[in-house]
Model the fold of this input.
Amino acid sequence: MTVRELTGTAIAKWLDVELPKVRNLRLDLLGETVGGDLIHLELQSGNDAAMPFRMLEYYLGVQRLYGQFPRQVLLYVGEAPMYMQNELRSPDLFFQYRLIDIRTLNGDRLLESVDVGDNVIAILAQLRDDKEAVHRIVERIVGLAAAERETALAQLTILAGLRHLAKTVEQETRNMPIDLDIRDHETLGPIIREARKEGRQEGRQEGELTILRRQIEKRFGALPRWAGEKLAMLSVSELEDLSERVLDATSLEELLR
Done:
């Protein structure tokens, strides 16, 4: 049997290539159900066009390690509108996972849960009153054992930074009977500072992206998928540069080449 018969096409040339070694991948959360199934929960704060490839890598990595494929859920926790894809398609492959925008979840129901983990993640979902939610979550954390309290506060501070509420968390802890100042704590202090920094940077990047998308759509019409994916991977400075060039560009292809 010839190569053409095997592949259904002619090979113009053979490529001499050595694929990179497998990277060490770290999942956000991997759990095992009572029935023994594996559940992979990944959190993502930005619209990453490469996310389907990462999720496939995680999918295969879990299978290699545990001998079974996980059910996967990607939870989008960013501020910008979600427009990521949740699948990969090719003539010989179809891969898909669940993609959920956390803002579609009822945060008030999560606050009512007896699981403090649900209470903490509620800060990212739909809430009637963000500040009241922070107050209730911190109040719940106060009643935990010391080690659990530290972990829960760290998680809350990181997630609150994604909603620009890290300062609110800090203020609430001052009003609660917690035997530590999270600003000076060796573990939580750096987390607060980093969360604030990331929150400012992420907010700026998403703001620039939103403005640029509107400029492009007003000048060239609806933004095609390939363009949206490319824009989502650009830095703040690159987005600012495009915002200046969009008025002089004669086409979308010229702008993004």
Notes: The longest helix spans residues 188-220. The beta strands are 29-32, 38-44, 71-76, 87-90, 93-96, 98-101.
